[in-house]
Amino acid sequence: MGQQTIGDVNDDANVELAEEVLLSVDQSFQRSDTSESVEVPDRVRSDVAVTDDATYNLTLNSNSTCSTGNRSLQTLQYQENGQEVGYQGGGVWRMTESGATMSSPPAVNYDKGALSVSFANISGQQIGGSSVAIRSNTTANRSHEAALQTALFTEATYEGVRNGSWDSSSPSTTCAPSQVTNATLTIENSSYARAWADWAQSAYDDKYVKVTPSSVEPGETIDIRFALGNVSDPEFEVQNMSVQEDPSDDQKALVNATIRNTGGLQDTQEIRLNRSGASDNATATVTLTGGDSARVSKSIDADSGVYNFTVASEQDKAYKLVNYTAVPGSPSLNITSASIPATARLNQVPESNVTVENNGSMTAEQNVTLLVNGSVNATQHVTVHPGNTRTVDFDSAMPTSENGTYDIEVATDDDTYSQYSDDGHYFVVGDVGVFEVTSVSPPGGVKSGDTVTIEATVKNTGNIRKSDAVKIHIKNESDTTVESKEKTLTLNGTNSGSEKETVTLTSGPLTAPSYSNYTYIVETPDDRSYGTFTVGASAPPVFDITGLGVDNPVEPENKTEVSFNVTNTGGTAGSQTLRIGRDWGADKSTDEQLDPGESTTVTQTVTAPSEDGLYRVNFTTGNQTAWRILNVRSNTAVERDGGGMTTTERVNATIELKGAELEGSNGYQITHTKVDMDLVVNNQSGDHEIPLWRDVGYDFEDGDVNGPHAERRLINDDYPDPYEFTKTFEANSNFSVTATSYHCYETTYTDIRFKIDGTNYYTKRCSSPGSVRISTDESSTNADILADGEVIPGYGQAGKAQRKLTDMLGEQRLTELDNGSARLNLADGEFVYLYELSQDNANPENAYGYGDPDYNDAVVIFRTNSIENEVAEPRFSFVDVDVPARTPKTDDTEATVTVKNVGTAAGSAKLTPTFDGSTAETQDTEIGVNETAQFNVELATASKTPGQSYQYRFNLTNPNRSESATGKQWGGNIYVGDIDEQFMQVDSVRATSTIDNDESANATVDITNVGGEGGTAEIKLYAKNTDDAGSTFTVSDSATTSLLTNGDTEQVTLSLPSDRGNHTYYVQTRNSTSAKQSFFVGRSSVVVNDTQGINIGAQTYNTATLIERNGGAERITVEVNNEGTVGDEREVALTVKNKSDGTTVYTGTENVTAGSGDLTGSDAYPAWAGYDTDLDPGYYTYEVTVYNDTASGSVDDTATGEIYLKEVDESGATTNDSPISIDSDTITIGS
Q1: Which of 41, 63, 498, 828 is deepest in the core (most CB within 10 A)?
Q2: pLDDT tens sequence across 802-824
């Protein structure tokens, strides 16, 4: 108990004395959360009193529903001779002749968009006794603080929460924490209102904190508005601009646009709407908070001609070119043709489009709308100048997600197309056969007089059997059919296993004077594929698209591969630019040279858009354009699959036993039967059964999770709880946690007692288990897997001696419903296994009443901790090359090359030998991870002239890597025959193929004297930068050997160049020169992936947004990307701090390898750093730092963000660690 005594002072200084006392009160509550007291001297105690005239109100987003309501702002106040000093709102204020001033600031903390308010509750009366005690009790206010928090974020009022009239079973969040943009603190009836205003204005920038009014008198109301969340500068973007005719004035144009504030702070701006050459340009004033938008619309004079209309804010501008052929002008957008199929299979994306033409006298700015059964299904905005046409695709908007018959219409402002009225049929989805052309093999290099063969493969991708015609046509340049074939196919659909069949058309001789273009067309009732080929010796090249590859579906912001095949169907070789284009990212283009009939494949790895949807990918050559739809669909890393789970990604997960209660009571004893559990996993490596917890406890338990000893470990904190099992599951694994109960032939008393309702119960364990009673591996319905929000079976059906589900799962994970059942409140990424192990073939749907299965015989929580990404690729390195330094003339030389796979996946290593300038046959072999392989290479030395040294080189490459990636090389020389004098041969040269420009590298060189006379060798390494056209070979390093006699070998190291670029180098003595080898010096650039780069549980998040989750965060994984040209290692650090007080709760570093070798031409290479953070619910900030090599090096990149982990039973924000916090101490005054 702290004690402070203030002595008597002069009467003239009483007010200063009282101020000191109140400052002491403030300081005591700042430094301690325990009770303290401050003794008030006799001289001033009779003038100390508590007033409650003032009130405060905290309101979020100017929404009165999200408000604390008016709360009393009690004041501990001293008054004497017209002067006064008070403790109010955590601050000390003084009233002087010139007005109210601040002596100590209030308990309001604001920093970078986060606000914390902590006002004390003060109770008591004017003091008449001999002493006054002022006490703080921080633990007595939890219900008060919880009510304040609940009132702020939900529809509840403070009073409703405190008196119990608010129904907390179905809370409705009104102001979600992530959506809070401002908070207004209102102070009413305060004598110190002026000082409150002065404090707020002087302490904070008015960009973020605004005080209304700026000057007040005592007792007047003051509003202090704090900007929360994103407090970046306002940024007014101009979006969705359009120009239309003004229906109220045919001589004017109506200019419209949406103005959106993509910044954080509110602002007011003047928006300018202009037309080039106009004299009546217009303005509109718009006020927007961060994230809000408004529509502006103004009329501007129109005139004949082409004009540039603009809409501009202070930061952005948009424009439209509009063509008036006559004034008054109006557009007329008519639908001139439609290509919409009659049928489609479920979830197909059928090619569906309409063509519109503007027959009016003004540029049309209109919506083209697709209606399904009379309701709008999709809208596309088009700009069409007078006399022009535009094709509008509705492929992804067609209603194929459910089986059915649909009425399809397309409408503009001026015209309507009806599929039923115009084409005589409806659109049918589902129980149909769909004949899709999956591949076509066109001819190439056709000469005049040749016949051609076209093969087309057709597959029924619908769900039912279908018979229909497939047609193949060949047409000449006059569009005349010269050959055709029709064949009726009968193919099963997906219900019976999709069938496919190939249709072949062989033509007669096709002639051409010099050359001629022919078109092939493959048609089914549901699909169409076409292309061109040329006939004639001088026919130009024609690059025809013959296949498309898009892997569907893909998760948002995940990487996927798209590709297309191209064949030169022309008569001569040629080069064209092949391009993959998309709306949401950069195109990829490559120039390819193809001979007639030759094919190539262009591939691009792309990152999918961030939102679910269907996105078009375009593939183009110089002769043709084709497209496919990329289906972007959110997915969970772990999904329920019947009685088990399926992983769609590689995940780290924990299986936690919460309880097992297969037991009964008789009198004062509880008898436990045996239950054990297993993890059964099926993946590409086979079937695996992992016994769980068999090594826990005593030998006689043998994995029994239901015995008395196991129950004691689960409920008694004095005994360690070992019942957690964490494992990394590979992608596409199927697994289940199975439970088995046993009959019991004999039981034995234990020394364990359990107290239930005040009575001690003896316990008996099963000492002689018999045959299997129930196994969920055989009866999957005896295990029920439930997710968050689902209703549990058998709730409340536990027997007297059994722990209830609330005991095992905890009250926070269950919400009892009015019908007697309960709903699960689980953290993100959690599932619950509930087991019924006493009734065979139980059904969860029948588990509610007395005597029904209770599904509490065992309870397990499955929790996804993280997604464990890795780049699985092979990496090969030389272990040894065995080549003799000298060989006789008569024999070829056997070389043995040993290679090891040091990567993370098996792969094919390719070895290409070169001897005396001639390249030998390439060898390749499959090598597993950490395995080695030998290549035996025969070097043709028997055919070489003796008395000379001959160069060899081995080039080791990985065919799975980019073609631009430099392979590893090992080179040297072999001397053929004998020599009497000294001959210093460069026996072998090897070095790393790539380095980062901040590193250094050496070549390892073996020098052998293959001659008969001893001596020394001067060795020089010559190198040049081949990226520099003017570069020549210069000496990079040199060395001299010691004395070498016949057959002696010495190894030296020589420095390689360190300047960036591609280098060629060789090593030379006076007698011998090595083969030239390649060496690349690049630069690594490793940065944090700001897009979906933070992983917690089964979800990934952007770094720039607040991460909100239910439950804690056992593990956080950070993705970094190497955007450079060489792979390298980095140290990645993660620091997590408590948002409220800035204390560090976790710090850790991980080393990652972001690629290896040459990454030139590759997309950013990812790597992942995982951290076992074990964060409880709360509000945190985090910082990721990427260091160059180690933490002592320079910083390559940083990323920061915030994480809000909510309690699993939370409705809105009900903890003191939410983005905005409000709490209180309690001050009590008494004699």
Answers
A1: 828
A2: 888 888 888 778 877 766 677 88
